Amino acid sequence: MEDSESLYCERVVFKGENVNLELLPCGLRWKIHSVPSSSFFSSEKSNQPVEICHFLSFEDVLGVEKHTSYDRCFVVYNFEQPVSKKNYEQELNRPVHLKGEIRNRVVYPFVVATQEGAQVWIDRIRKKLNKIPDGEEYKRKRLAILVNPASGSGSAMEIWSSLRSMFEIADVQVNFIATTHAAHALEMAETIDENSVDGIVCISGDGLLYEILNGLMSRSDWRSVVSKISLGIIPGGSSNGLAASIGCSDARIAAFYIIKGHSNLIDIFTCLHSEKETSYGFLSLSYSIIADIDYESEKYRAIGGARQTLVAVMKLFQKVKAYKSKISYITEDATNESGWMSPGGLSQQIPQEKLPVERKEHEVLASDSDETKGPYLQFINREGFRSKWNERISKTEGDLTFLLLSNVPLIGKGNHFSPKAELSDGCLDLIWGMSQSKTDVIRCLMAGDDGTIEQIPGIIFRKVKAFVLEPLTTEGNIMIDGERALVRKVCIEIHPALVHLYSPFKQQHFSCSYIPLESSKKVASYPPPDALLTGSPGQNHKLGRVLSAIKRNANRRKQEITIL
User: Fold this and answer.
1) Phi/psi at 252 (nearest 5 deg)?
2) Which pairs count as long-range contacts for 440-447, CB under 8 Å and 24+ apart, including other chains?
3) DSSP-based three-state secondary structure for 20
4) Taking a C-beta distance cutoff of 8 angstroms, is the pair 180, 153 a contact?
């Protein structure tokens, strides 16, 4: 690669060696020259050094700070993945909720000539990490971090203690809040200054984020607030459905991506419960056995995620309950046929106000007044569906034995009931069964392990834009995002791409060690496509590991390795 790519370069000391450290547009790079043994190459080349490049991608760098006891040393903290050709090429394309991402924190200390020089590197790297253009003032990220000490098995405070140093290393300004009572998070969200924070993060299960969402959406300035403040979730509860659905079941991985600051627009849904009550959700609505398990397992919170499994096993020895109900819905296909344009994949980037939904003067909103009370509702009102959609509505009535309306593929870690759901597809996944046998209901519960619920007899699946549940009994439980609602009519409509959620991103560059080949010396990518990957820099501090990697590839391409 050409040295002209460097934005800044200086001679530094790393691990006792003098190296040229380069600041590149997307990372840090330094080169070493190692002499492999004669068995790798022909005798005339055996004593000549091989150029090995170490590259730290800014997509992997957690933060940088000055050494606590040596002021001429700055330390780069990298949260890197073990790199091989296999995961480098394949990991990017796996569904995010199926990724078992592994990252190792590795420390890279660099010593420069002066204390001031160390600070220059720190300032430059921090601006790159926060994507601040040259010439603009550095600004720290500002996060409000809420912890529910009673969440799940009560481990949320311990999780925060283990993660706190990550936010300090990343130079994040944290406003830490431990909730003290029910609806504490909702009250905070209702009053928070939208210009005081960049994001609100919950260390909890899904319930705390549900409070935050409803607090923000209840404000008269909700649209401005959700456009400025991103939401984040670090799993600390017993189910953690949202965290699992974005591939962040590991608290460290979740914290890392929150620190990196990348967010995606996700769908949320409005729930109209009664004449005055409105709530908002991001996860799911459930009724029948799956809701009963969720609610009845609350008394076993002390055992964490196993609580739902325990109650599910207990249900095996009980009679299957069926709840007589009416359900009606309007599918994605029905809305497209009528001229309503589904944003689909576009929902990742299109702001809600630019989506193809126009307000008519005779139509009303969730509050029957104006949009300051919530997002515009095109399909539903408090009585059910608007009359103009009558010809497009599908209806059914019967004894519900299974009902799930989901916005996510995983409603809890290991609960893979809606594998086709996506957080930003502008639809909800409706899955239900009526009058099922006990055997089939048990098979439905077991199908959560592998996402095969559609194969169960009696199960019906639809992608819907809006949904109305009308129980014809007061028995049972309705659960919305894990919170219990009264058993009565509820009308639901999806809102595409409305809220920003801190999420993993498709990584473009991986931290790695590599040997540039003659064919790729001037290719401006990291690493060059034909380079020999020798692992991640953290794996290659010892020369022996680098030489072993060379040996593995030498017979195949030894003539291309750069000999200096």
Assistant:
1) -65, -40
2) 440/401, 441/289, 441/320, 441/401, 441/402, 442/316, 444/289, 444/402, 445/289, 445/290, 445/293, 445/312, 445/315, 447/417
3) strand
4) no
Query: Helix count (H) and strand count (E) of the chain?
Result: 13, 25
Rounded Cα distance between 382 and 377, Å, is 10
Q: What is the pLDDT of residues 384-403, one digit of tens each?
A: 999 999 999 999 999 999 99
Nearest CA to 389 among 448, 336, 333, 330? Answer: 330
Cis ω for the linkage preceding 527 (within 30 of 0): yes
Which of 207, 188, 186 has its CA nearest to residue 197? Answer: 188
Say whether 313 sits in a helix, a strand or coil.
helix
Q: How far is CA 93 from the centre of its chain?
A: 15
Q: Answer yes or no: are the C-beta atoms of 485 and 280 closer than 8 Å.
A: no
CA-closest candidate to residue 16, choices 514, 543, 516: 543
Task: Write the secondary structure of 340-384 as one string of H (helix), E (strand) and C (coil).
Answer: CCCCHHHHHCCCHHHCCCCCCCCCCCCCCCCHHHCCCCCCEECCE
Helix, strand or coil, per DSSP, at residue 266: strand
The C-alpha atoms of residue 71 and residue 486 are separated, in whole angstroms, by 61
Residues pairing with 75 in the sheet: 65, 109
The 10s digit of each residue's pLDDT in 198-244 is 999 999 999 999 999 999 999 999 999 999 999 999 999 877 899 99
From CA 265, how far away is CA 230, in angstroms rounded? Answer: 9
E strands along 241-300, which residues? 263-272, 278-281, 284-288
